[in-house]
Amino acid sequence: MRTLVYSIVLVFAISGCVGTDQIDEPKDPSVVVDITSLVLMVGESKSVEATYFYNMDRPEPDTQLFWESKDESIAVVNQEGSISGIAKGQTQVIVFNPGEDTATVMVTVVETELDVASVIISADKTSFNVGETIQLAATAYTSSNEEVSVDTFTWSSDMPSVVAVDASGLATAVSDGEAAITATVDGVSSQEIKLMVGLQSRSGNFQGAGSYNTSGTTTLFIDESGDLILELGENFETDFALGTFAYLANSTSGSVVRAQGLEVSEITGKGFHSFNISEIDASVTLDQYQYVIMLCKPASITFGSAELK
To answer: N or C terminus of the chain with fewer C-beta within 10 Å?
Structure first.
């Protein structure tokens, strides 16, 4: 009986993505960390786990990875991934396999439990037209997630010619395009919130990856009801296999897509497809992901990608 069970499992594993050359173990390297942000007290140390993947189905735990702090006056890291807080502030720690993938951990170091450890920006909407305004709000929290009373945040825009933001967090649309806004207090910055001006949709053209073929157009847009919709055009085609899925992602690496992307749906035919992304995850915004990916999920192989612009 045990032999029969093993045989069934083996047949199932082999059948995933039939038609691919996964037997050749295509290299699709990535580095994945167990956390992407970390808060430390001065003098405190915590370890971050990082794993190198040859592809998503093949972790290589013995691969030597390298760690580096962008500002060692704030935090240092040893080559085992133990990060230590040196002085109050914020910096990035990176882990990488030379010449391949890099992963980043944002490290905030505080002196007391009352210090600001994180900043969150909120907005009623993230897209508007030239001349319109959006009032942004920022909230600061301690390491124990208690709200901190803050009188003034420092607001900044990476593209003030597209979106200008004043000292109160009032964002004004200046010209069509996209801008990333951050709020900072006491040396701690928020994650970026991206505001889009005059853009209610993003589109791209598929390109195949390696020896795989994917072609056609795709569009991500906000419909009249405010839902985020992903469409594949009538001209869409891809190599098909058992377990071909559409993903939204910020990488074309199959292993990273599977680990960190948003799975949309299995794809079993060419031509027009429509998916309501808001029904899959209501928090996803128009600007959150850079690519639409066709992925052979069982083997974590990218068949094709379209960059959304």
So the answer is: N
